[in-house]
Amino acid sequence: MTATAPFADRLVADIAATLPGSTAIFRRHNVDFCCGGKIPLAQSATEVGANLPDLVAELEALTPPAKEIPVEPDALIDLILERYHDTHRREMPELIQLAQRVERVHGAHPKAPNGLGELLTTMMPELLMHMQKEEQILFPMMKEGGHPMIGHPITMMRHEHDDHGEHLQHLLRLTDNLTIPAGACGSWRALYGGVEKLRTDLMEHIHLENNILFPHFGA
Questions:
Q1: C-alpha dihedral sign at 68, 71, 196, 176
Q2: Contact 70, 79 (CB under 8 A)
């Protein structure tokens, strides 16, 4: 079995539906993950003249190995920046595009997630601003050992985390708890796979900060 076999033998539509970020790669290489996604990646790559090893390498880069949660604050901050901040920035634009496409094509379907693109478009700048405040203000204070006034920015971050949680509840309502309807196209399945990952990542991100990082500083 070759090194590319795990992805090469999988259906394109299956990869798109289960690996957030893969649809952006497929679009760059002209691989059809929607209507023509019911064939193995290797076959699709051959049909469009894409380089299979390059495709597989890009897909594998989307699935970094899990890392042990560190206890020490500086290491935990580094993990949050790499695993969650960078991931949110990379994946949310693609989710917005997918949501807009599904709503545009399938908006008349009774299970269409109408309003999801607008919600994600609202969430993204709020999340970007939240992360920027952590990166520029809170995390540097923490890496310097804390500050007598550190409780104020931590309280602000907790309130914003609550807002993110409300957005996630709204997201579930718009998608019928991420229930994929029968006969859904590849884009729709990829969208819900990506939204589920966003939900999981954001919940884990908030958990690490609220329950592990912030208590180090008495907040």
A1: positive
A2: yes
Place of tokens 């917005």: 96
> Could you count the other beta carbons within 10 Å of the beta carbon of residue 110?
6
Characterise 34 by phi-psi region: left (phi > 0), alpha (psi -120 to 50), beta (else).
alpha
Give the angle 49-55-56 at the CA atoms, nearest 5°: 135
Residue (of 205, 215, 216) closest to 80 by Cα position: 205
Express each pLDDT in 55-77 by its tens digit: 999 998 887 766 788 889 999 99
Q: Alpha helix (H) ranges present in the chain?
A: 5-8, 12-18, 22-28, 41-48, 52-60, 73-79, 86-106, 116-133, 139-143, 151-174, 186-207
pLDDT at 219: 62
- Round to whole Å and give the CA distance between 50 and 144: 48
Which 8-state DSSP code applies to residue 29? Answer: T
Find, among 63, 75, 20, the residue nearest to 208 by Cα: 75
The reported pTM is 0.81
36 against 133, higher pLDDT: 133
User: φ, ψ for residue 216 (rounded to 5)?
Assistant: -60, -25
CB atoms within 10 A of CB 38: 12
